[in-house]
Amino acid sequence: METTKITSAVFVKSSESLKQLPKPDKPEYAFIGRSNVGKSSLINTICQRKNLAKTSATPGKTRLINHFLINDSWYLVDLPGYGYARVSHSMREKFSDFVREYLLKRESLVNTYVLIDSRLKPQKIDLEFMEWMALNNLPFTIVFTKTDKLSNNELTANLIQYRTAMLAFWESMPPQVITSSVSGRGREEILTQIVQYNQFFKSQK
Ligand code: GDP
């Protein structure tokens, strides 16, 4: 029986095109968000490794999709950050073709974790990205990051703002996890979800 314990976490490869990706023979879980949202920190916290994902974008590496093999049984996938452009343009300009193609075509992708900085008011680019995911029937979980930086009241107020912004065009909210890479809050919840999905993935094979 698979548990949420991390026994091994290994960097496998960086890919810059669909054909370079590892064989789609294991369930995989993608992590995406605006640059500086806390993605590398969260990946390191989830895997209990200090430097598995490098914190703060390395120039030239930002367009690559990175695969990490966890417990020899599933992939954690670090997607390039989005939202460098200040002005809102079309989706085509904001998300690289590669990331869009990956999300649309990767057959072993089970779920995507969309990271949102809990300290900020709802950001147009995050809302647009999630809308694009939903329109394409791609399942995802919202992950609020850096929640240790807020008081409980501030956090609640910001979560309500997000809820209001999303329910303006959604019928219901997608699943959400509240996280902090400093305290480890939310880590177990994400891993529990992944283990459950893994079982489902195996049963489909
Ligand atoms: P990335 O660009 O999305 O990979 O973001 P990083 O993981 O490099 O984090 C950006 C900055 O936010 C760094 O200075 C981190 O130390 C800080 N940070 C990330 N996650 C947390 C968190 O949960 N709590 C706090 N207090 N700081 C965080």
From TrEMBL:
UniProt-listed Pfam families: MMR_HSR1 (PF01926)
A single GO molecular function term of this UniProt record: GTP binding
GO BP of this protein: division septum assembly
Stretches assigned to the EngB-type G domain: 25-200
UniProt KW Cell cycle keyword: yes
Keywords: Cell cycle, Cell division, GTP-binding, Magnesium, Metal-binding, Nucleotide-binding, Septation
Domain of life: Bacteria
Cofactor annotation: Mg(2+)
The keyword Lyase appears for this protein: no
Protein family per UniProt: Belongs to the TRAFAC class TrmE-Era-EngA-EngB-Septin-like GTPase superfamily. EngB GTPase family.
Function: Necessary for normal cell division and for the maintenance of normal septation.
PANTHER family for this protein: ENGB-TYPE G DOMAIN-CONTAINING PROTEIN (PTHR11649:SF13), MSS1/TRME-RELATED GTP-BINDING PROTEIN (PTHR11649)
Protein name according to UniProt: Probable GTP-binding protein EngB
Organism for this UniProt entry: Thermaurantimonas aggregans
Taxonomic lineage of the native organism: Bacteria, Pseudomonadati, Bacteroidota, Flavobacteriia, Flavobacteriales
